[in-house]
Give the backbone structure.
Amino acid sequence: MGFVNLFLAFVRIGLFGFGGGLAMLPLIYQSVQQFGFMPLEEFSDLLALSQVTPGPIAVNAATYVGLHFAGLPGAAVATFGVVLPEFIIMMIVCRFLDRFRENPLVEGAFTGIRPVTIGLLGAAVIFVSEGVLVHGPLISRALVTAGLDYYNLIAIGIAAVTVLLMTALKMKPVRVMLLMAAVGAVCGGMGIL
Amino acid sequence: MKHGSKGETRKIIKQLAGLFLAFFKLGLFTIGGGYAMIPQMQQIAVTEHHWLTEEEVVDCIAVSQSLPGIIAINMATYIGRKLHGFRGAVAATVGVVLPSFIIISLAVLVLGTIGDNPWVAGAFTGVKAAICGLILVSAVRLGRQVLRTPFQWVLMIAAFAAIGFFGINAVWVILVAAILGIIYTASRKGVR
């Protein structure tokens, strides 16, 4: 019964988690609470680990909860559960889109949605930089009132150099990330980041 | 040259393996949410392999963001299916999930926890800072392809403000934009 509950709980999380990543964590917390998959005190460890390891946060969380519940088989069940709804929904939606691609309604909808996607990416820059480039929200009065301590100057420098490397030198994203990981590790090790 | 069925099968397996590896790499470097995947997806799918055009990348992001669930999974399924149908979708999705699965399992079973080490924490801060710049570059590059009319510029700025400044749920913004797009396109056709 435990495995079925674990699977269904993560199917539900995949199905109703709009917005991905951090927006899905409350849903995951509630499921852990409801079914007791692991002690709730561990949730902050899950949060920290999911954010500092690569990969989609919800997949990391599913693997973590599953591991604590029933070892590797549990991790596999939870991860499979959280991925399955997206996979099925996307397959159905794409089939629909393929069939109606030329339809004026679908075409019109995409004319509106494409610019929004660009705006969304712009907003993503704000969300990603919060807590990294500045110590708190980016859109806030603290930008002016809190003084230089509010800014993480090294992180801002890394972001700026990244833009330069990408545009002027056309460096590959992976290489830029590896380079900046090395810079960050050295700065972190010296205690200045 | 005639292709035997054996050669054909080998070719498909090779293509699926390529897709799997590409998305494994994407999963490995997705740090701090699905958007971090986009700059690299552009690099791999558009620049290196010519699997997609920039406009198709934007469509993929739009559809992935509109549906529930994990954005990275949505994008992997979308692109995998577009290239090689069901098998492609499976290869790409498994590829993007596997790095998380392996790393979290190792971290929990072998290391205990890795978040406390200042070197490791610094490396992640460095990558996250780089991702801010990477996404910015991606947004500008994709915007150049997509934004063609004043109508689209207005929508982009409105969406940026609504989501970034006022914290409105992206799903609603996308729905409204879809309706406005339909009305706009229909009215343009009426004029002509």
